[in-house]
Specification:
The structure is a homodimer of 341-residue chains. Chain A has 12 helices and 12 strands. Chain A is α/β, with parallel strands linked by helices. The first copy, chain A, folds into 2 domains: 157 residues, Isopropylmalate Dehydrogenase (3-Layer(aba) Sandwich); 153 residues, Isopropylmalate Dehydrogenase. Chain A starts with a strand and ends with a helix. Chain A is globular and about 65 Å long. At the A-B interface, helix 8, helix 9 and helix 10 of A face helix 8, helix 9 and helix 10 of B.
Chain lengths: 341, 341
């Protein structure tokens, strides 16, 4: 197992990434890692975390970085020597089995689409975000790779999502729902109404339209959406969770008694926070790309980096992409047959 | 002031609606109310809440009810005698100044569009939801009236939203943001990219693209969106808030000490809950309809009914629709002038 890790990705790179790698080599001592980024900076942190002589770690120099503020297209065109582009090239050339970046989602989607292309039969890749629900977790896809989608894209997301959810949730027939604005079949926007008809015909466990409130009650294992609404759901949940803790602090600071009480209960709040903690998940696979690519949160901490690398290794071991190619082939053939009839 | 109240709307009608009216008549003893719904049922609850002899309350019989599970179009076409349709007719005929329904959003939008039409120059109405942010509140529109929108619709939402926010937040120049998937100007989907160009040209305090996480930090007073993504944000926030309390209960029930501790802190959780409490807002105006129409949450409690009626009266007193007509006229003229140049 050899994984390219974008050392320059995320808000606290490269320090956090290499600290995360120091956790990873303890858990996966046999894996090999290519740290992609500015060599001098990477070397400094490898020394700092005692990894300078680790035979499983090599450095691949990349001159530039896609800053979080760079527009995706410009990041790709203008920064051909960026760490993200270099990761994608290593993956394309077969020099690594997977890539992990806690960086710029848009630039990663753009770079992997151009360099690696999508898997045979897949039109668009989708970011599969692992989110919390009351009974467990659900997979939201697309969480933001494609702001504009067609009904066919959504159909393919459903096929890919079912396959990944089978592995992730250890369920043979995970439930698949379509994000919409009403529970009834006929509700939705033009896109979801069209997608509904396609999802109905797939040999998946389709549970119909799902609203953004009930998904948190666990009504589906996989939630299919275009990347715009999906990103709104993901980011909205992040923003509200943060605000909830701000509001909680505000009511707790109203008097001294409450403040003392809150101090005593720090564990309660820590456990509550853990339900929504993206760092426990680590990263979202970009499903449908011809290569295993895991995108972590820009604010990833070392634990998140470790978890993102774990997700990458799991996808490789599961032979995820072979299964996706087979699933998409079957779906496309069924569509062609229906069109011919 | 005379307001039509859909007595049959919402999950707990007509009891909750009439209980809410009993609160309202105490606060607004001079207002007149037309309770629209099944006469015998309405009369039963008027007796129950001691309102049977109130000279300010009359009943308008409506035979049927739009159930929450009825599809909007069918609710409208198949139930011409529904309480929602009857409210819209009373409003159209000038027999009331405003209507309030804690009921079926889709059916209300459909009925008011057909019977009342939109205000001159307005293409589509938008549901303006008042939502919590860390520093205060923001107005989300469209929160779900139009699953599919054009860039022109979004432009008009911005014009209407600014006007309502001026009143609601007592700000002369409320900030207006565009819900998108990236903070940078060039990010978004086809619709938001097109809408961005239109919003830039409006004489409003436009702050550009806003992501679904930062809106909760209070980066804009008004958030413009199509009704699909807007509804996903609204419902997603509702769902996550509910789940957060479920998760909180779960960590609090882990041991007896925590449980006792939580009992002592019931006030804290009540205050926390109040931040997101839709009942304090009561209802969302359907802006752009030729008549004041307030739509409450289906699960409205009596306090929410009172607050929704208050919102209706405020919109009437503010002469909201006259201001919207003037604002839209100016925007449309500016567009025509630009097109001619």
């Amino acid at each position: 197992m050899k994984i390219a890790v974008d050392a320059m990705g995320g808000d606290y790179a490269p320090g956090v990434v290499i600290e995360g790698l120091s956790l990873t080599v303890q858990e996966y001592p046999d894996y090999d890692f290519v740290l992609v980024g500015h060599e001098a900076k990477v070397r400094f942190y490898l020394e700092k975390y005692g990894l300078a002589d680790n035979p499983h770690i090599s450095i691949f120099h990349a001159e530039s970085v896609c800053e979080m503020s760079d527009p995706s297209a410009i990041a790709l065109r203008g920064k051909k020597d960026s760490s993200i582009t270099a990761c994608a090239k290593l993956l394309k050339e077969g020099k690594v089995d997977a890539m992990v970046t806690p960086g710029h989602t848009g630039a990663t989607v753009a770079a992997t689409k151009v360099l690696l292309r999508t898997l045979p039969g897949v039109d668009r890749p989708a970011l599969a975000a692992n989110m919390p629900s009351q009974p467990g977790r659900f997979l939201l896809m697309d969480a933001g790779a494609n702001p504009d989608c067609t009904a066919l894209n959504l159909e393919q997301f459903a096929v890919m999502g079912e396959i990944y959810a089978q592995y992730l949730f250890k369920k043979e027939r995970p439930t698949v729902g379509l994000l919409s604005v009403g529970g009834e079949d006929i509700k939705g926007c033009d896109l979801t109404k069209e997608a509904f008809k396609r999802l109905e015909k797939l040999p998946i466990n389709f549970v119909g339209n799902v609203e953004a409130d009930t998904i948190f009650e666990g009504v589906a294992d996989v939630l299919i959406s275009d990347g715009f609404a999906g990103n709104v759901l993901l980011k909205g949940a992040e923003g509200l969770a943060k605000s909830t803790f701000v509001w909680l602090k505000r009511v707790l600071k109203k008097n001294t008694l409450r403040y003392v009480w809150a101090m005593l209960a720090a564990n309660v709040f820590r456990e509550l926070k853990a339900f929504g903690d993206a760092d426990n998940v680590g990263g979202a696979p970009l499903l449908g790309i011809n290569g295993i690519c895991i995108i972590g949160h820009g604010s990833s901490n070392p634990k998140a980096v470790l978890n993102a690398i774990r997700v990458a290794a799991e996808c490789v071991n599961f032979r995820l992409n072979e299964k996706i190619v087979a699933g998409i082939k079957a779906a496309n053939e069924a569509n062609a047959q229906r069109a011919a009839e």
